[in-house]
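Run log // design_07
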């Protein structure tokens, strides 16, 4: 068994690194004439994910991470990196639309319109379950699905307007 804090430390570093990458990409996209859409939803998404991660630290401090979950979570990470790599400099945690943007149809986007959102929808509850936090998994799984429902609608609208 792996102590929960090891997984949570790696997860925290990953998420903070992603915010740095996102910030850099957002700045470059905005300088090239891109526009941000649905800006009002971003604080809710950040609050949801920050609360999810902080509550994992709080509730799972004395738990062990179940090895059973390593393979599915590793596969989800492969999907996450594939998605980020495919989007390249277009990848952000915000809805940023470059001028004349068209939806991608390469990488994981050949199979799904929003692969990263599917990955996150599975990942959040899986990590909670891996730490033995079933109620946490259910609560944040439902909250995240509600957030993603709003976000996907807004992102699709933004891409339609740009095309």
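design_07 sequence
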């Amino acid at each position: 068994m792996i102590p929960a804090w090891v997984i949570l430390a790696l997860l925290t570093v990953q998420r903070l690194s992603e915010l740095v990458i996102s910030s850099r990409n957002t700045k470059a996209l905005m300088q090239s004439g891109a526009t941000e859409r649905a800006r009002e939803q971003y604080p809710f998404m950040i609050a949801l994910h920050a609360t999810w991660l902080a509550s994992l630290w709080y509730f799972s401090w004395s738990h062990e991470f179940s090895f059973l979950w390593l393979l599915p979570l590793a596969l989800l990470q492969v999907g996450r990196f594939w998605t980020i790599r495919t989007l390249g400099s277009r990848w952000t945690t915000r809805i940023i639309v470059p001028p004349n943007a068209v939806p991608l149809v390469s990488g994981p986007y050949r199979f799904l319109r929003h692969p990263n959102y599917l990955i996150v929808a599975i990942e959040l509850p899986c990590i909670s379950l891996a730490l033995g936090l079933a109620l946490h998994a259910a609560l944040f799984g439902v909250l995240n699905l509600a957030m993603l429902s709003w976000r996907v609608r807004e992102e699709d609208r933004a891409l339609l307007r740009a095309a």
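Residues 4 and 92 are 28 Å apart (CA to CA).
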